[in-house]
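Worked problem 6 (solution included).
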Amino acid sequence: MTEFGDAAARVRAGADAAVEAAGLVALLDDDEVIDLLDGDVPFWPGLTDMTGGGYYRHAWPAARNARLGIPGFAFTDGPRGVVVGNATCFPVAMARAAAFDVALEEEIGRVIGLEARAVGATYFGGVCVNLLRHPAWGRAQETYGEDPHLLGEMGAALTRGVQEHVLACVKHFACNSMENARFTVDVVADERALHEVYLPHFKRVVDEGVASVMSSYNSLNGEWAGQSRLLLTEVLRDEWGFDGFVITYFIFGLRDPIASVWAGLDVEMPFAQQRAIALRAALAAGELTRREIDVPATRVVATLLRFADRVTASSPSVSVLAAPEHRALARRAAEESIVLLTNRDGFLPVTRARRVAVLGRLAAVPNLGDGGSSAVHPPEVVTPLDGIRAVYPDADVVHADTDTSVAAGADLVVVVVGYTKADEGEYIESTNADLFTLFPPVDDPRVGREAPVPPLPPAPPALDLAADEATMATGGDRRSLRLSDADEGLIEAACGANPRTVVAVMGGSAVVMPWIDGPSATLLLWYPGMEGGHALAGILDGTVAPSGRLPFAIPATESDLVHFDPDATTETYDLFHGQWYLDRTGVPAAFTFGSGLSTTTFALDDDVHVTQDHRAVGVHVRNTGTRTGTAVVQVYGSYLTSGYERPAARLVGFARIDLEPGRGGRVAVPVDLSMLDVRVDGRMHREPGTVRLRVAFDATDPGVVTEVSA
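Solution. The predicted structure is:
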């Protein structure tokens, strides 16, 4: 057994992981310690590999030491599945947030963790909980919406599931809610905005026991997040008690290698890049001490010791990738995520149809979302057209991209519109010359073009990537929340040709819909994953009851929301955005946070009960309609009177309940009143007073109300 294996056995027997890690680090020489503080692959060979499709072909190793048997970790990304190999592609995280189903998200995490292990990864970097400040953010699809409580609970659930098999990493810490300007923008946020709006969800995932945190590219209050002692040490470790390790955002996430060590940044990723040169020089010059580099190395090794059973376990067969049961889960996730926004005169479901017209360029092509670091390459994809043909096997199903004449006389017209990876996603291109100064010399013997490449983790069967898949899509923020003129014109023409029209909108967040009164029904399909076509078809024909609810507010017009400039060099984040901002300004949303229709109706009885510890609210829910359905019960908290400026109400709990027609059931909704705490004098404070708990079906539903003392 290796020294690491012996130490891991002692930790399993009850020894302190940090003490054991310090003992191992003490056995390393200076070069070996520094090698634990960045990726294992030299920069220039690694960059060539990664930009040629290597990001999707194998995991990326870091922090290994063969002499002592320290296994390090092997990174793969997400969050809609594992990006290496032909893995299961789930709906994007924003879609899964619309399910308001933490049990489902944990189950998805288990599958992702298992598939990550199968492709040679031991570390999953796809727990994204950045708050959706504005829906134009290009990577909105990767997170869980605009509400801190929903973000935290969903991120914690994904973490629980993933960490049954591999280490999980929560990202991007912090205030990363813009894409085009992510390398340059300075976010200005006071202590209340940070701790009450932009950090609570990170704390929730840390409290869940996440192994690692990834810093963000942006600066916060004048300091780059990757070298912010405030974020990485004072908040994350000193206040929250985080005992894992912190990695950089890839390639451009480190601006000052030495300052990052002092700030609390542990591992530069994904390559041996700046630190491999700078830390050796600083140590030789006395600018850094051996003790200072031992600290991050010890944190890394201690985390590996705590997770030794996962990082050293044998990998399952690659046959688990996109296995039938995993595809079934992806289909269930897509079904739960679809949000029915309108359904005029109960048009849906359409149980039988002799002729179905399907319109739109997106109906017959795979459309899975971002083409950057979150891209997943499933073995096959069920498109909307595929799903519709399968669910109406006896119907004459015709498709056209733009020819609305095919809609005439159809029993059902389905118009599929929206965005693709060309319209929104991770922003890859940059003309910022300052970023390229972060690249090391091409002739450096450790990280240059001729530097030796260590063995890589075992890779799954070779991926056959098209040219536009091997190189990441440009992506970026949206400049408008409207659909394209062509899509809006197609909707108008289809509705004019046949009133029996359903519009399915694909995308990663809110869309302004001035055409909403035209279709008989409108739904958000999102980027629905590899089984999304079947999910859509199930909603259309009624085999699936729609149960998705909005994880953000959709405004009537873009100007109703907070300021958003994709090219900003500075942006102020305050206490209000999304639904909270609309409530404050008195402007009604087109569709409120938490809203969504079913094909049945529900009612809440007024017998609300709050447990003595204020951690759960019980209420009786009735299905008052004629079809089976799922109610999403939400609890909103507010103070009757408060000495602090606050949102009108905040989500503090949610739960789902399935009910047959005419039946009722009692649901216990877990609640977290810490969502109402305020930041005062450097700590979180529970304001004394009376808290109003409103049990409702969306953020503005009057619901039923009870009160508790805080």
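Discussion: The longest strand covers residues 629-639.
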